[in-house]
Structures are given as C-alpha cells and as structure tokens.
Amino acid sequence: MTLDDLSRAAGVSKSMLSEIERDKANPTIAVAWRLTNALGVSLDSLFAPPKSPEAIAVSGPHDIPTLSGHDAKYQLRVWGPIELAGKFEWYELTLQPGGALVSNAHEPGTREHLTVLHGSIEIEAAGATKRLKVADTARYVADEPHAIRNVGKGEAKALLVVIHG
Question: Which end of the chain has fewer CB atoms at under 10 Å, N or C?
Fold first, then answer.
C-alpha cells in the first residue's frame, strides 16, 4: 500500500503519516483507529501483549505447502516453518521414476543433506555424482548448480535439509 493509498483509505494527511513514520508525531487514538481500520488490523492488537507460542502447535496435512514440478516428476512438501525459510529448511521430496529436482546455486556457503527414505537416488554436485540407496545420507555443496534424480524403477522419497550459508 502506498502512502497515497493509506492517506485516502484512512482519511489522514500524507504529511501526518510521514511525521508518524519518522517518529516526529504521535497519532491520537482517533488517528490510530483510522489507520488500523484502513490496514485491516484491530486497534486493540497494537496494545495487547504478544501471544505466547503454543506449547504444542499441530499442522495437519492440508497446512503443509507442497510444490510440484509436474514435468520434472517431483513433489516437494515444505515441512519446515516459514519463519526459518532462508536459514534452515526441511522437505519431503518425492520423485517419480526418471524425475529430477534440478537447482540453481543457492547463496554462498549453503549445504544440503539428503537422506533416502525409499528408492534409489543420484546426487550431482560440484562436478561429482553419487548414487544412494535407502538409509544413505549425502551431504553436499548447494552454492552451485546441483541435481537430485530418481534412478530407480519405482517412486523414491527422501528427507532434504537445506542449511543456508
């Protein structure tokens, strides 16, 4: 939302918004109420103490984002929480026979750790290729192009952990 959009939606001048943003003015309750309404946030949420995290948070199967590469014959289920994305991620990778997850280089220092849960998988990274079977784990550089391929005749599954550099 632009400053113009917020100004129109809240009925607050752009100069007032600019002063609030630069900590040169404090909004009145009425101005704060108009701003929160325009932004779709409740005014009381600004003053409420932060909610403590649940002791146990459960995500059902429909809460887990899934990325599909139909032509590449893979499915990547995102098991890690979104707030860790870009730092530490884990996925369940399912590859159909002949399927591959081919990746461009991640940021410098990134490494991947892949454990085969079912099937036969080949890893290609840093000019090397290794074949893995069930319960094998490969740890490899991911800050250059790399690939994970199903080289078996049936479906392959793996746990993929990405630790960003």
Answer: N
β-bridge partners, 124: 129, 147
- Structural domain span for residue 40: 3-47
* 90, β-bridge pairs: 161
Give alpha helix (H) positions in the chain: 3-10, 14-21, 29-39, 43-47
Q: Are residues 145 and 102 in the same domain?
A: yes
pTM of the model: 0.67
Indicate whether 87 and 133 sit together in one domain. Answer: yes
Please list the helix, strand and coil fractions of the chain in percent, rounded to the nearest 5, in that order.
25, 35, 40
Q: Lowest mean pLDDT of 26-30, 70-74, 159-163, name the range.
A: 26-30
What would the two tokens of residue 7 be?
């100004």
d(CA 35, CA 27): 9
Whether residue 55 is contained in a domain is answered as: no
